[in-house]
Amino acid sequence: MERKRIGALGEKIAADYLVKQGYIIRERNFRTREGEVDIVAEKDDFLVFVEVRTRTTSGFGTPEESVTPSKQERLIAVAQAYLQAHQDLPPFWRIDVVALELTREGEVSRIELIEDATS
How far apart are the first and last CA of the chain? Predict the structure, then answer.
C-alpha cells in the first residue's frame, strides 16, 4: 500500500475511533503556513488537535516515536494559528496523538490514543 493511501486510511480509522471515544470532529486536515494537523475535535471542555501516525511496519520505529520534538513544535504552532483564526472555542486545548499500526492488508493491529502528547 502506498504511503499516501496508508495515511488517508489511518486518518479515517482514527476519526472513527475518536468519535466512538466521545470526540466531536470539527475539521480534518487543517492547514496553515506553520504546518498541518490531521484532526481538530472537541471533547469535554477541550479543543483537541489530533496528530495521526500510521505504520505498516516497525522498520522505522513505532508510530508514536515519529512525533519528534520538532514535530511537536510545529503542532503547537498550528494549534495557536487555529486558535487565533476561530471564535467560540472551548476554554482549553491540547494535542493528542493516535498511534496506529496496520497489517499489510490494511487491518488494524494496534490503535492507541495518547492524550496531551506534547506536555
Answer: 33
For 68-72, 94-98, 110-114, which range has the lowest pLDDT when averaged over its residues?
A: 68-72
Q: For residues 79 and 92, is the Cβ–Cβ distance under 8 A? A: no
CA distances from 112 to 53, 70, 77, 83, 108 (A): 10, 21, 24, 26, 11
pLDDT digits (tens, 9 = 90+) for 33-47: 999 999 999 999 999
* Distance from C-alpha of 91 to C-alpha of 107, rounded to nearest angstrom: 36
Domains in the chain with CATH codes? 3-113 (3.40.1350.10)
Beta-strand (E) ranges in the chain? Answer: 24-32, 35-43, 46-55, 92-102, 108-114
